């Protein structure tokens, strides 16, 4: 029997359910004896199956079946609710078993480091792996500039308070922007200037005016799959923003936490247009993997490295070694790459279904944003509808969305914009969810008109 036949035999047992996720496979010697073949044949078969991410090895224990993406039956079938509100990763497609394997291996590899304080900047071995991973996103840097953080929000929060070489004080942010950024601005009492992000992107003349006259220290931007609008900049727009930053001595904080989901390899981060330190690149693994990991990275230029690490030390001493080690193993094994390919496929399908439903079902008076990621989009309600009232009516229909009003600075507050995410909505329920939104929208408009003419 050749190793390919052994592989087919094991894969058949997986397909029939005899070998379930997490189950330990027979030892190499026992399987060789059972199948009447050489030990080397089994070793080769197990090695190839591990490369295909069908099985994984645990030191001094053996080989186990990897958890595959389960069939994704909607939670709506049990609760009746359609959840456009939650914006975490698809729970039914998360690599729980794979990551459990990586955690177990990390305990073995880093058992000594777990009982000491680790490097503030992050494990060197992980930073080496992260620098390698970033190359695929067109971010070319060295491990010495990579800082591991407890989620990208930690990096954002620290950078708001730190002095920059331009000796400027204020920040500029897209409007709207995600709630955690708004809260960081409020908490640190930072002076922030907003610039509206529209269906056509930013008004570059307005951005130049802000950079020129408002003492801007840095511009914070989510360049791909913006939260909450879902907007992604073109390469032309990214380059223009970098040129303006260079002209007016403004730094850029580029938050690319959903960049892994972008299937277009021709899209460049802003960092690619100025890797000197003008653009500080940050990303997170929360939205594409497990939010509970609280792992992210920041590519920090030399001029701010010491102050950044000092601020991080004051914040949390170091990011937990166990999760760092597990992420390193997950990246090295190739599991992350396979997982991201699945996620891209899932979210791209969901995004297409959502856009189709918008086009076919929403009334012309409702404006909506587009996104290829499936994570975020917004709907601007027709006059005179208000988000808070609209959301309460949707709840009665068991459809949940978010009020985007809290994602604006005070000078930009909107009361008629809702945010939707389909990351945790089953494909079969997307159309019906939008159908309910459209129906409630029309009913409330008609009710308002009737009251007006009584």
TrEMBL record:
Please name the PROSITE patterns in this protein's record.
HTH_GNTR
Keyword annotations for this protein, in alphabetical order, are: Aminotransferase, DNA-binding, Pyridoxal phosphate, Transcription, Transcription regulation, Transferase
Q: Which SUPFAM superfamilies match?
A: PLP-dependent transferases, Winged helix' DNA-binding domain
Give the protein's cofactors: pyridoxal 5'-phosphate
User: Which residue positions does the secretion signal occupy?
Assistant: none
Report a single Gene Ontology molecular function. transaminase activity
Q: What Pfam families does its record include?
A: Aminotran_1_2, GntR
Keyword rRNA processing attributed: no
**Per its UniProt record, what Gene3D superfamilies does this chain match?**
Type I PLP-dependent aspartate aminotransferase-like (Major domain), Winged helix-like DNA-binding domain superfamily/Winged helix DNA-binding domain
| Residue ranges occupied by any HTH gntR-type domain in the UniProt entry | 1-68
CDD domains from the entry?
A: AAT_like, WHTH_GntR
UniProt lists the family membership as follows: In the C-terminal section; belongs to the class-I pyridoxal-phosphate-dependent aminotransferase family.
From the Swiss-Prot or TrEMBL record, give the protein name: GntR family transcriptional regulator
**The organism of origin for this protein:** Paenibacillus glucanolyticus
């Amino acid at each position: 029997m050749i190793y390919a036949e052994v592989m087919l035999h094991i894969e058949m047992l997986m397909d029939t359910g005899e070998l379930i996720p997490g189950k330990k496979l027979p030892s190499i010697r026992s399987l060789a004896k059972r199948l009447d073949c050489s030990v080397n044949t089994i070793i080769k078969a197990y090695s190839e199956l591990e490369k295909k991410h069908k099985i994984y090895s645990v030191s001094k224990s053996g080989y186990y079946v990897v958890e595959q993406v389960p069939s994704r039956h909607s939670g709506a079938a049990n609760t009746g609710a359609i959840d456009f509100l939650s914006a975490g990763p698809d729970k039914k497609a998360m690599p729980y078993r794979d990551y459990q394997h990586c955690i177990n291996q990390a305990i073995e590899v880093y058992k000594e480091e777990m009982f000491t304080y680790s490097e503030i900047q992050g494990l060197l071995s992980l930073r080496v792996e992260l620098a390698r991973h970033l190359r695929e996103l067109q971010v070319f840097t060295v491990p010495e500039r990579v800082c591991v953080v407890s989620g990208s929000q930690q990096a954002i929060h620290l950078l708001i308070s730190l002095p920059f070489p331009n000796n400027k004080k204020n920040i500029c942010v897209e409007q709207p922007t995600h709630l955690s950024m708004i809260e960081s601005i409020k908490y640190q009492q930072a002076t922030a200037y907003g610039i509206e992000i529209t269906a056509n992107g930013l008004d570059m003349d307005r951005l130049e005016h802000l950079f020129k006259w408002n003492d801007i220290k840095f511009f914070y931007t989510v360049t791909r799959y913006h939260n909450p609008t879902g907007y992604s900049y073109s390469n032309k727009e990214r380059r223009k923003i970098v040129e303006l930053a260079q002209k007016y001595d403004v730094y850029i904080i580029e938050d690319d936490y959903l960049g892994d989901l972008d299937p277009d390899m021709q899209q460049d981060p802003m960092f690619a247009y100025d890797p000197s330190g003008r653009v500080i690149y940050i990303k997170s693994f929360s939205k594409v993997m497990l939010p509970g990991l609280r792992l992210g990275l920041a590519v920090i230029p030399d001029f701010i490295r010491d102050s950044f690490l000092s601020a991080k030390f004051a914040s949390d001493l170091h990011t937990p070694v166990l999760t760092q080690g597990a992420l390193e193993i997950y990246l090295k094994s190739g599991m992350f790459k396979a997982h991201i390919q699945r996620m891209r496929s899932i979210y791209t399908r969901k995004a297409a279904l959502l856009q189709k439903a918008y086009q076919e079902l929403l009334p012309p008076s409702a404006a909506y944003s587009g996104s290829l990621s499936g994570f975020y989009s917004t709907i601007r309600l027709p006059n005179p509808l208000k988000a808070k009232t609209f959301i309460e009516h949707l709840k009665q229909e068991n459809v949940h969305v978010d009020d985007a009003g809290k994602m604006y600075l005070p000078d930009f507050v909107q009361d008629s914009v809702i945010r939707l995410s389909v990351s945790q909505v089953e494909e079969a329920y997307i159309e019906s969810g939008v159908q309910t939104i459209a129906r409630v929208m029309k009913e409330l408009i008609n009710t308002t008109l009737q009251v007006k003419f009584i």
